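no rush on this but wanted to send it before i forget. theres a chain ive been looking at and ive put its sequence and its fold in token form underneath. i want to understand how the tokens follow from the sequence so walk me through it. thanks a lot i owe you, the record is right below:
>
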Amino acid sequence: MSPSGALIAILPCNDLDASERFYNRLGFARPDGERPAPGEPDTYRMLSNGKGGYLHLTDAVEGWLTPGRNPFGLYLYLESVDAAAREFQQSPEDKPWGMYEFAVSDPDETLVRVGWPTRLRTGAQ
């Protein structure tokens, strides 16, 4: 598959380490080869879930992300919604807009919805 036409979110973060750990729990990681050499700045992180999902994390400008006022949101289409929900101690549910989903907030209170179309779920009517 060619990356031409792919759209990847670049998410500003107050604490890159905490954000990277959070997104690791959703299956996103960066290859060891993408890590800078010791002593080099580590202010931009390119994560992938190995299934075509990519997320870039970057340092936020100081004071830009205020708790309770973060305007950013992400939606992760994930067939294994129930497994992800267990990781975050959440209970997914079928929504009127046709998605089986749950929502959590990352360390900077970015809204992260994880869902899969209800009609595509195994056993869905």
